[in-house]
Amino acid sequence: MGSWLEGGPSGEQGGRGARLGLPAQGPGAAAGLGRRAAALVVDWTVCLLMSATFFPATREGSLLERADSLVTLVIFAAENLLLVGLLGFTLGHRVLGLRVRTAGVGPEGPVADDGRAPGLMRGLVRTLLLCGVIPAVVWDADGRGLHDRAAGTAIVRR
């Protein structure tokens, strides 16, 4: 018997996302690390450019050197909270064909995906933990970071 960090029973019953009722491949399958990381790079770059353009910390240097790191983080948090909470995806998710869905396991099995955005409360929990970095880089056997697990969400392919 293993812990949820090691994979446990869900890893033995069909791989990543199987316990959540996600398909193994195709639309609705758990998103891979490469796509999720690329989406994060897109989101952070856009937020960095917005920070440097509208709230520069200095007037010298290249555009990216002008960005204020705290302002960039605030813009990133606002983007994640509003877009994930209300639409179910960030700009990076959209570009890379991903979406955030409600996901979890209840007493009667996997929570069904109704296709709607997770909502602002799930978005808030997810965003606060995502900005804390550590929860986002620790996964469970279903391929979810701790931020997604705590919020009851999962990133899936569209």
From TrEMBL:
Gly residues bias: start-end ranges: 8-18
Boundaries of every RDD domain copy: 31-152
UniProt keyword terms in alphabetical order: Cell membrane, Membrane, Transmembrane, Transmembrane helix
Predominant location: membrane
Membrane topology term: Multi-pass membrane protein
Region (Disordered): 1-21
Name of this chain's protein: RDD domain containing protein
Organism of provenance: Cellulomonas gilvus (strain ATCC 13127 / NRRL B-14078) (Cellvibrio gilvus)
